[in-house]
Design a protein that fits this description.
The structure is a homodimer of 229-residue chains. Chain A is an alpha+beta fold and 229 residues long. Chain A has a four-stranded mixed β-sheet with strand order 2-1-3-4, with helices on one face. The termini of chain A are far apart. The relative contact order of chain A is 0.15.
């Protein structure tokens, strides 16, 4: 049996940083499924598995290729029903899409403004050139212009997490008493920031900070296998 | 068998407007449970069931008193397991708390700024006095100062719903193929705005608008039983 997970790296292969890949790493650990990780720089992605994808994570599971962190999670739950569920029912599956929307349209844009230059700086020169061109086209602005709002985003970051704070009044995880894929979705975003940037966005004693530290401890401290920036 | 739902009204008893009560009205309809509604003005709430609550909805179900829309939904699912679930599993139950957080900490504050004077104006004089004093103390500002950001909130409202829009790329309801309590949570917020204010926050063709119109059609058009302001 072979299971390969293609992840994203900069110049240092030991510091995978993609939020989406972290969701999948936590999902595989949640289900107790072993894998070999293949760290891949931005410019290596088009060469994965003969051009199978434009993005990572890409999972090869005994010959089955699955792309996209949410689809991988659905695939894992369907393929390995004897392992702990990532969704705990159809309602959990459906509502996780809303959490994904919140992560990608509220949290990710803020992290991008905070950390875009940090990300650039950790890439190898060839990938820096790709990253600058690709992201400047996407945002119609220079990386430096995107980063101009950095301090304001850091100051406003905590307030964006109020929906999390409300939920944590009732339960320790988005998933309830124990974590589910929805936790890994938001963990992935904050882990991305933790690895690429030394920006401090959560205060000690903040319930969201406590939740995040708890997530770093999960699965034998998997999240701590990469040090903070 | 008697089932009473205490709801919130202004001077016109036929226009219940509380977002939280609308969640419960939709939840009861979802489960096919009949009830008698008792419209109650703000200053009547302390007198409900001998002082049982400071807020509505309050449900009396064959002698059992339950307060708070989320707790009522949990109670209904536990008490009437033979009727359609409001959560579809433990994951759905847990993640609905996050949707509640998003509704109350992202959507409600915007609606408050947009509609606080509209709400005031639809109350009877005695309730207007209560509402002004209570809310001005809560916000440490006059109602008029809260409403000063109205136009800006209307302009920025649609962008706050991006997490919904992302979810709707994959499925017609937060609950997946069909609505769950999570849908009623956000429906309640937008229905509140629809009933109290003529502010237009969603454009025709916006998937969130289509979802909301679909929710208004549910359960024999229950949401349309009160006309838009």
């Amino acid at each position: 049996m072979t299971r390969l997970l293609y992840s994203l790296c900069g110049a240092d292969e030991t510091r995978p940083f993609s939020p989406h890949v972290w969701k999948t790493k936590m999902a595989l650990a949640h289900k107790g499924l072993a894998y070999r990780e293949v760290p891949t720089p931005f410019t290596g992605i088009p060469h994965i598995e003969g051009g199978a994808t434009k993005t990572v994570p890409l999972l090869v599971d005994n010959g089955t290729v699955v792309i996209d962190s949410f689809r991988i999670a659905l695939y894992l739950d369907a393929t390995y029903p004897e392992t702990p569920s990532l969704f705990r029912g159809e309602g959990g599956k459906a509502l996780s899409r809303f959490v994904e929307g919140y992560s990608q349209f509220v949290v990710h844009p803020a992290i991008t403004k905070i950390a875009i230059l940090d990300i650039h700086d950790m890439l190898a020169p060839k990938d820096q050139a790709y990253f600058r061109e690709n992201r400047e086209q996407r945002f119609s602005r220079s990386l430096e212009e995107v980063a101009a709002g950095r301090e304001q985003e850091i100051a406003g970051f905590s307030a964006k997490l109020e929906p999390m704070r409300h939920m944590l009044k009732f339960q320790p995880f988005l998933g309830g008493d124990s974590p589910l894929f929805a936790d890994y979705i938001l963990f992935g975003a904050l882990q991305w920031l933790r690895i690429v940037s030394d920006a401090k966005v959560l205060a000690a004693g903040d319930p969201v900070n406590d939740w995040f530290e708890g997530c770093l401890d999960l699965h034998d401290g998997l999240g701590r296998s990469v040090d903070a920036a």
